[in-house]
Amino acid sequence: MIGVAVVGYGYWGPNLVRNLSEAAGTELIAVCDLNLDRLAAVRGRYPSVAVTDDYEAILRDPRIAAIAIATPVSTHFRLAMSALMAGKHVFLEKPIAPSSEEAERLIEEAERRGLVLAVDHTFVHTSAVRKMRELVEGGLGEIYYYDSVRVNLGLFQHDVSVIWDLAVHDLSIMDYVLPARPVAVSAMGMSHFPGEPENIAYLNLHFDSKLIAHVHVNWLAPVKVRRTLIGGSRKMVVYDDLEPSEKIKVYDKGITLKGEFQANGEAVRQALIGYRSGDMWAPHLDIAEALATELKEFVGCIETGGTPVADGHAGLRVVRILEAASASLCQRGRVVELEPARRVA
Amino acid sequence: MIGVAVVGYGYWGPNLVRNLSEAAGTELIAVCDLNLDRLAAVRGRYPSVAVTDDYEAILRDPRIAAIAIATPVSTHFRLAMSALMAGKHVFLEKPIAPSSEEAERLIEEAERRGLVLAVDHTFVHTSAVRKMRELVEGGLGEIYYYDSVRVNLGLFQHDVSVIWDLAVHDLSIMDYVLPARPVAVSAMGMSHFPGEPENIAYLNLHFDSKLIAHVHVNWLAPVKVRRTLIGGSRKMVVYDDLEPSEKIKVYDKGITLKGEFQANGEAVRQALIGYRSGDMWAPHLDIAEALATELKEFVGCIETGGTPVADGHAGLRVVRILEAASASLCQRGRVVELEPARRVA
Amino acid sequence: MIGVAVVGYGYWGPNLVRNLSEAAGTELIAVCDLNLDRLAAVRGRYPSVAVTDDYEAILRDPRIAAIAIATPVSTHFRLAMSALMAGKHVFLEKPIAPSSEEAERLIEEAERRGLVLAVDHTFVHTSAVRKMRELVEGGLGEIYYYDSVRVNLGLFQHDVSVIWDLAVHDLSIMDYVLPARPVAVSAMGMSHFPGEPENIAYLNLHFDSKLIAHVHVNWLAPVKVRRTLIGGSRKMVVYDDLEPSEKIKVYDKGITLKGEFQANGEAVRQALIGYRSGDMWAPHLDIAEALATELKEFVGCIETGGTPVADGHAGLRVVRILEAASASLCQRGRVVELEPARRVA
Amino acid sequence: MIGVAVVGYGYWGPNLVRNLSEAAGTELIAVCDLNLDRLAAVRGRYPSVAVTDDYEAILRDPRIAAIAIATPVSTHFRLAMSALMAGKHVFLEKPIAPSSEEAERLIEEAERRGLVLAVDHTFVHTSAVRKMRELVEGGLGEIYYYDSVRVNLGLFQHDVSVIWDLAVHDLSIMDYVLPARPVAVSAMGMSHFPGEPENIAYLNLHFDSKLIAHVHVNWLAPVKVRRTLIGGSRKMVVYDDLEPSEKIKVYDKGITLKGEFQANGEAVRQALIGYRSGDMWAPHLDIAEALATELKEFVGCIETGGTPVADGHAGLRVVRILEAASASLCQRGRVVELEPARRVA
């Protein structure tokens, strides 16, 4: 039985508390928040769980082996670092930190101390995204493109742009699903409200191959869209997260090249493009709650010394792309390289 | 009664022939094509229409006042220029020409001779696009963004990229609908097949204001999408061309800013963003065939000396953006300015 | 502050408990269930609420003024009757009772004692259904038909047919929305599993006018459908409960009759039917939880002596139709009259 | 080369003429219509085809071996009978005749003379309906129900009810797809316009098994729906004819009964119903025009002495159900038996 605490009981914290209070293998010992009304809400619903606004008390409590942090991103580094230094395993909201430098320091600290550092890339624990990875590894052939649209009306953030708020989901999914990692990023976007961060943005991810990836995020769209297309040389996928049951559709469609490529003097080619249109198939997906799966994995890693799917390095890779995209956004879409050395990290 | 000829009886020509043979105000005199089988097909269906593979004969025929050209874009300049020089009015497939220089010369020639030069920007004659323009002029408020997705499987072109084939539609619609004209373009794309032009591309259009426009075109998508979002400060529009009847949906949705912006020493602001969610409304749209409307306008312009909605200048503006986008595509998405002087043309 | 108890903590009871524990104006005093595990679950979540498996204790408790009953329908009469006889107001799950006779006795008892008897026809408290009623009263013109499809896979019931389980929703909505009440019912259906009640059924409701109503319910459908069409002489409505936001769409469409009806010897008519196709409009709908609205109304009625929208009479009318439909179902769809005297009740 | 004539150039006739003029194996010799304007239209488009308003001339013409009839249903019997008596093969619009008696006489005449009598049940020649039959024969298991909705706004007929106009499609599809034939019919409906036939109707088809079929047809619906559900013991199908490509979806979903059925004194059962939810699959469908396939089959039958899929007997079976449904409609939905002797025919 692993004792855990949750820090931050705002938008996402209640989901952590609910899952951790019901999970086998964990005992939810305390919830920490600076807001006393929120603590009262916890006390009302979970009378056996201690509440406190004193984070130091959490750190000192020897019964608490792991801390789940769901506070604003600007506080991630400080809270997570002191948790690690107090010897606690950490489960951290995404994005892992507001800068790659801080993310790196968290990784180092966790590794030095042999502690588990997990980032809450929730989507990679959904059956839909896992199926996509399976398909990318299995039947799609060479991956040509990844295109994602994630738009709706609200919720405007004031401290981070729509990229840090919405594209972070796509980047964490891509990090998990795609067979390659981007080498450069460019981004265009706009803030339509004075003093606010960008509310619409388009990201291009560049790879060392013919793979091309693109993300459209928008807080100001009239309709909600959560749709990803993956084009492969053999099959193609549509992932529509708003579909109640058939979220993943696999299309046995594509192009067949019957061309001859000869090179005598200059390349002579008579390409004959054929169109192949076969069945569509929507695999059955389990409907387990992703967060429950994820927390179970976190606990399992603590027990066995394993590494979570979304570990600190995954969190770092995503933050590096977010940083580069933000830099590009300020420079009218200039391509920003992702340094190779750091990519390997 | 205006005598007309159609040149090119391939993919689009039959629609021109059918419409011109049925239209009031025109007499379809001849159809010209180099392919004799196609001419035989015309003869079978329209026995009273002359057929020929000799374009010079068309140019010499004094009964023919206007020529509709539906040939590959590489032949547009030569055929249109000789038609204009022979004193014929010209209706030209989109894009008007493969280069802005040729487009400019066609415009000059037509203007010098007082001839009508129309470009077949078909979509601007649909009731859906006309309604969008009405809404942009009327109720949407300040336009924040224009986002279009035009993807499906096939038809791959071998001589032009997906931008020239598909984005040309979006650019002609934007040229008609938007209150401002772009000042710069950037584009990313990829060819996944050796020796073939780009089959997927993303265009960003930059404006002198906070307006931002983006187009996604793709010949290799598993599903067909034809969807445009327009975000305004007061209302927002979804235009889905695949909807059988409700192609245009107007959402009375948006953001309300109740912020105070004070500047003492450093800017202090307490923005309060509110979300407004009202009715949705799908205006009834006529279902007249766009091409019939367009040809009627062309004939009207010949009769009255008027200027078509999609004249040579509209065609030129679109080609300039296509050229700039192609240039950007080769330079990894570098922003390519559209020269101000030329923009005015 | 009105003291309430909830009886039955199975499928729906937890929603009652959650709403009543949070509602202003009520104090949730006790929860009663025969299953001790369920009571333990209540104690864990709501430590200040008493739990008991002794219904008599609830009836005796003077602090409890009202009882909400969410138990199997076969127990409704006994539990509700004893609650009324103990002087408690009653909020009763739908259908009100397994027979109209029992429903009548509950109504009589409540009326004699001046107690509020509400039936949980949840849908009539949704903004979508309220909007439909408004439209039926307002802009649709004469109502021609009401057609509802409510199908999906599962949850099979073993004690009642799909009519009592699913069609009860449609009947309660119709009771609230339609301007007239049915005079007869016929129903066809089938049980595909030995010993089980009918899992698919079609109901026809007959009216004294040209109004026709039909309901399709099915526990064994591959897809979930929750769609109602209402045809009026002036406008038509589609109500799709699965739409996340635009649940109600109003179509300004219809038929215009420009006929002349003359009768000389035999009727001579030259009807000219015209088709009118105007705008579609999706009114904005509030997203308040229906059950909260409903319980608030229940409490208000207790305080002011008012009558709930879905009172015992509404519950009775629905049960009469269910009874008649069940009778028809056993007789291959024979039309079963709803006795006029009883209709008035 | 089989010489054919088309009689009737109204709504459907032009499709027959176009297909027959392009088909291999047939020579379209003449088109007959009483309306001279229509004949002029034929002459304009098909200058080599003879036109006439004299049906006798068609019958006398020895070059004409087969006649395709697309006139109002009230004329079917007279025109088809005289064609058969003149020794011509007949391709007849659906429904085959306004009464089963007339249909029977046509069948007898055709059989006595060894002539092909085909009914234009177009849908049974679509790849979607053929796939459904394949699935019903193959993987769906025992068929539990067939449910079809065919509604939209217009086109109102004045001489026949919506059943004869729209349900005829469903009945011909069912005749082709289902493994059993109905033994009885009931129908409810309403005419909302004085002197007009029923514009909305609901049909129930009864079988000798647990199969149940239902059809909803409506000329006065705000939206167009063309959707059929087939429930089988192993799999289920959704056929949506408005889907551009995935018209057929097969759901590997259903119920599994793990019950024990014991009979000691009275039947004791503890049924355990399980829900199975597997993949969905949309088979690729060819997009050949159904009418072309159908006419090719007709010609093939003439050449080889074969029997068309939709022969006179299929046409008769459909008309018998239409007759019975009409009778039921007038009697408030009374169940009308389809006589066993005649069913066999």
UniProtKB/TrEMBL annotation, chains A, B, C, D:
Domain Gfo/Idh/MocA-like oxidoreductase N-terminal residues, every copy: 2-121
InterPro entries reported in the protein's UniProt record: Gfo/Idh/MocA-like_OxRdtase_N, Gfo/Idh/MocA_Oxidoreductases, GFO_IDH_MocA-like_dom, NAD(P)-bd_dom_sf
All copies of domain GFO/IDH/MocA-like oxidoreductase, residue ranges: 130-236
Name of this protein: Oxidoreductase
Taxonomic lineage from the root: Bacteria, Pseudomonadati, Pseudomonadota, Alphaproteobacteria, Hyphomicrobiales
GO molecular function annotations of the record: nucleotide binding
